[in-house]
Write a structure and sequence with these properties.
The chain is of the alpha/beta class. It is 46% helix and 14% strand. It has 11 helices and 8 strands. It has helices spanning 2-7, 27-41, 75-86, 101-115, 136-145, 167-177, 190-207, 224-232, 239-246, 251-267, 288-309; strands at residues 14-18, 48-51, 90-95, 119-123, 151-156, 181-186, 213-218, 277-282. The protein has an 8-stranded parallel β-barrel with strand order 1-2-3-4-5-6-7-8, surrounded by 4 helices. Helix 5 (136-145) links the parallel strand 4 (119-123) and strand 5. The radius of gyration is 18 Å and the shape is globular. The model has no long low-confidence stretch (mean pLDDT 92).
C-alpha cells in the first residue's frame, strides 16, 4: 500500500505527477484526459499519482509569467478519476490559500466524504510576509488530526534553504506537526538538494526524531519555454545545465541524462542512509514529446534507484 511505503523507510516510492485539466473543461474532456494519462501510466511500476493544485503565483516573483495563469478543475475530482483508472492511489495537493479554519475543515470533510481522498499534500502561500487567516502549521495539524485519517504530506524546496531561512528546520517542524512525507520541487540544481538533505538529516539527529520520506521530483525539458516556466516557478537551472540542454541535438534526451546523473549524485551522499527517499516524475508541458519523455525519464530514474538499493 502507498501509505505503508511512504511511511516505512525500508520501501522505495515511485510517483508520477500531473496537473488537472483547465477549469471549464467539459466532463467528457476531463474523462478523456484521464483515460489518455492512465494508458501511459498503467504499464509503469508506480505506487501512486500526484495531482497538483495550481495557484496564481504572480505575487511570489517580479518576473513575468511565461504562460498566462489558468485555473484547473478540482484536483480532488481528478484524483478520484485517475485513481479509478490506474487502480493506484492519488496524492492530492491543496493550497490553503485564503481559507480560514472553518473553510479548511469543510474542504477536508468534503475531500474524504465526496472524493475519497486519503492522501493530501498541503501547500502554503506563494507570497511571504503576509498574515493569513489560517497558518500553514495549523492547517497541517488539523489535517493530521482529522477523523478521516488522511496521510498528510508537504513540499520541500531546496532553493529556499539558505543561511537566513532554513528549509531543513521547516521540514523538521512540519514533520512534528503531522507531515509524514515531503515531495520536492523539480530538481535541476543537485547541490542545493544535497545541502538541504544533509542539513535535514543533521537537524533530525539533533532533535532525536526520524527523518520523514522525501520524494525527489524530476521533469524532462525539451524547450526553452518549458525551462523558462520551471525557472519562473522557482526551479534553478545552473547556466551550464541550461546551455547543455538547449544546445544539445536532442534536448529531451540530454535533460533525461542530466536528471539521471543528478539523482545518482544525490543518492551517493551519506544522508541517503538516514533519509528515506523516493522519486516523482512530472511533466509540466502540454507538448506530446515532453509528455512522452516523462515516461522515458521515469524508467531511467527507476533504474538508478534500483542500482542504489542494490
Amino acid at each position: 500500500m502507498l501509505k505503508d511505503k511512504l511511511l516505512d523507510p525500508r520501501h522505495a516510492v515511485l510517483l508520477y505527477g500531473t496537473t488537472p485539466p483547465r477549469a471549464g473543461s467539459s466532463a467528457e474532456s476531463v474523462q478523456a484526459a484521464a483515460d489518455k494519462l492512465a494508458a501511459r501510466l498503467r504499464p509503469l511500476p508506480i505506487d501512486g499519482v500526484v495531482v497538483y493544485d495550481i495557484q496564481d503565483e504572480s505575487g511570489r516573483t517580479q518576473l513575468a509569467r511565461p504562460f498566462a495563469f489558468s485555473g484547473t478543475v478540482d484536483p480532488r475530482g481528478y484524483s478520484r478519476l485517475l485513481a479509478g483508472r490506474i487502480a493506484r492511489p492519488a496524492i492530492t495537493y491543496k493550497c490553503v490559500g485564503n481559507l480560514d479554519e472553518a473553510a479548511w475543515q469543510a474542504w477536508l470533510a468534503e475531500a474524504a466524504r465526496d472524493y475519497r481522498v486519503g492522501f493530501v499534500s498541503i501547500v502554503g502561500r506563494p507570497t511571504s510576509g503576509v498574515r493569513y487567516a489560517l497558518a500553514l502549521s495549523r492547517a497541517i495539524r488539523l489535517a493530521a488530526a482529522h477523523p478521516a485519517g488522511f496521510t498528510v504530506g508537504g513540499v520541500a524546496i531546496a532553493e529556499r534553504h539558505t543561511a537566513e531561512r532554513s528549509e531543513a528546520a521547516r521540514l523538521l517542524a512540519k514533520g512534528i506537526e503531522g507531515c509524514g512525507y515531503f515531495i520536492s520541487q523539480t530538481v535541476y540544481h543537485p547541490q542545493a538538494t544535497e545541502r538541504l538533505l544533509a542539513d535535514y538529516a543533521r537537524d533530525c539527529r539533533g532533535a532525536g526524531v526520524e527523518p520523514r520520506r522525501i520524494v525527489l521530483t524530476f521533469s524532462p525539458v525539451g524547450r526553452e519555454k518549458t525551462m523558462a516556466f520551471l525557472n519562473w516557478l522557482g526551479v534553478r537551472f545552473p547556466a551550464e545545465t541550461a546551455r547543455a540542454i538547449l544546445g544539445a541535438a536532442s534536448p529531451l534526451a540530454k535533460s533525461i541524462e542530466i536528471c539521471r546523473d543528478n539523482l545518482r549524485r544525490i543518492l551517493a551522499q551519506p544522508y541517503a542512509r538516514e533519509i528515506p527517499l523516493g522519486i516523482n516524475v512530472e511533466s509540466v508541458s502540454i507538448n506530446r514529446d515532453e509528455i512522452d519523455a516523462s515516461v522515458d525519464l521515469f524508467h531511467a530514474l527507476n533504474g538508478v534507484l534500483r542500482e542504489a538499493r542494490g
